[in-house]
Design a protein that fits this description.
alpha+beta; Vanillyl-alcohol Oxidase, Chain A, domain 3; Uridine Diphospho-n-acetylenolpyruvylglucosamine Reductase, domain 3; 462 residues
């Protein structure tokens, strides 16, 4: 609990205009993109590393909880606080440097991912920052690194941690440390960047990041294909990635998702089991060569009766339109039921058809609507459990189905979260997925970084 005296001390650090304990403000910060809820005692908007350090020193001295928060687009409860102080980074949002010689950008944690790419385009650098979560138009750098976010291009370009070269961070005890820099290789000491990326704000607070950039591909080609069943769509993706065609994206939208998108946007789709979206990028000659291989694979599946039709898009405008269906998937589902529980399963590529089939069986068993979409190219599927919390029976069925889904995914050698993080929402699976010995190790690491358990406690594990 943060009392009035502590509130005054917090105000003295960040300034009156960067502090609130107003009830309405606190309620507006009580959720992220998950089911998790909680109300903090106060909110502080930080603008400098020094402020973050002073706040952490104060919290460590007085033993109050601090929860770092960006745009709160997270889907696992990581940015939700049930007490203590929310440390908001949205006002710490400067692009500090774009270094075209070393292909890096140095940014504050509140920089929106899309804003970085827009600035790179505006300056005519010919470079881009590849990680692209679906929420990239609002998601911020600090939160995306803390969650080790993935996204559409992860299948070729990797996740956030693959692009982080350097970090400045504040430890829970208030010390400021620098790790890494602009070098592409660095094995000097423990890999703290790898540890902090994906730690969900439980080990340190990111105040600055240096990330890698890469040249924009000369050509991008998108293709969509409609399959008779989700299982056959999964088989196609497995074959595609064995073929060596190296697509930059591979996405799936099943029939339920397509129907939802159609109702939401007015877009029309042929009757099918699933739609696959594939993107190939690179120099024009190489893309044309790989296109031939893609069309040969399309023809093979069409001749077998699995593929219904396909379409190619070279034009950037047409390319953009194809991806609107994928971008509209999640918002479209909020029109169907008031609660959309977005899961984040990832399995080995050869188990994709099995996973998709099991989701259809789960929907029938529990009498639920479970539309599936996601980054099928790296085995990452997002089953969406649609339910109404005002219907206790349906709500209970949804959560029972989620538990069974987790057991199925782990049985296939997969993980319950490929990119959304654990937070509070996936904690129930951690023992089954990782075992007690590994959780004990996590516990010791947490103790070393945060001896007084003040930084985002109760996330990932208890």
């Amino acid at each position: 609990m943060i009392d009035d005296e502590l509130k005054e001390r917090i105000k003295s650090i960040v300034g009156e205009k960067n502090f609130t304990d107003n009830t309405i403000d606190l309620l507006s910060y009580s959720q992220d993109g998950s089911e998790a809820e909680g109300t903090a005692d106060a909110i502080a908007w930080v603008t400098t590393t020094e402020q973050v350090s002073e706040l952490m020193k104060l919290a460590n001295e007085k033993r109050f909880i601090v929860v770092p928060r960006g745009a709160a687009t997270g889907l696992s409860g990581g940015a939700v606080a049930s007490q203590g102080l929310i440390m908001d980074f949205s006002r710490m949002n400067r692009i500090l440097e774009i270094d075209t010689e070393n292909l890096t950008a140095t940014v504050e944690p509140g920089v929106v991912l899309a804003d970085l790419n827009n600035e790179l385009a505006k300056r005519g650098t010919g470079l881009f920052f590849p990680p692209m979560p679906a929420s990239d138009s609002v998601a911020q750098m600090g939160g995306s690194i803390s969650e080790n976010a993935g996204g559409v291009r992860a299948v070729k370009y990797g996740v956030m941690s693959d692009w982080v070269l350097g970090l400045e961070m504040v430890l829970p005890t208030g010390e400021v440390i620098q790790e890494g820099g602009k070098t592409r290789k660095n094995v000097s000491g423990y890999n703290l960047i790898g540890m902090i990326s994906g730690s969900e704000g439980t080990l340190g607070v990111i105040t600055k990041a240096t990330v890698g950039l890469t040249p924009i591909p000369e050509t991008q080609l998108s293709a969509l294909a409609y399959f008779n069943t989700t299982e056959n769509a999964g088989k196609f993706i497995f074959r595609l990635f064995k073929s060596g065609l190296n697509p930059s994206a591979g996405e799936i939208l099943d029939a339920n998702t397509l129907q939802s998108v159609s109702n939401y946007t007015g877009m029309t789709f042929p009757e099918c089991g699933a739609m696959i979206l594939v993107e190939i990028d690179g120099d024009k000659e190489d893309v044309q060569r790989r296109l031939k291989g893609l069309e040969e694979l399309f023809k093979e599946f069409k001749d077998a009766g699995y593929l219904l039709e396909y379409k190619l898009a070279w034009d950037p405008v047409e390319n953009f339109e194809l991806w609107q269906a994928r971008k509209s998937a999640l918002p479209s589902m909020t029109q169907i039921k008031p609660t959309v529980i977005i899961e984040d399963t990832t399995v080995p590529l050869d188990k994709i058809p099995v996973l998709l089939k099991s989701m259809e069986q789960l929907a029938k068993k529990y009498n639920l609507l479970i539309p599936c979409y996601g980054h099928i190219g790296d085995g990452n599927i997002h089953p969406n459990f649609l339910c109404d919390p005002r219907d206790p029976d349906e709500f209970a069925r949804a959560h029972e189905a989620i538990k069974e889904m987790g057991a199925t995914v782990l049985g296939l050698g997969g993980t319950v979260t490929g990119e959304h993080g654990v937070g509070t929402e996936k904690k129930m699976f951690m023992l089954a997925e990782h075992g007690q010995n590994k959780i004990n190790l996590w516990e010791r690491i947490k103790q070393a970084f945060d001896p007084n358990r003040i930084l985002n406690p109760g996330k990932i594990f208890d």
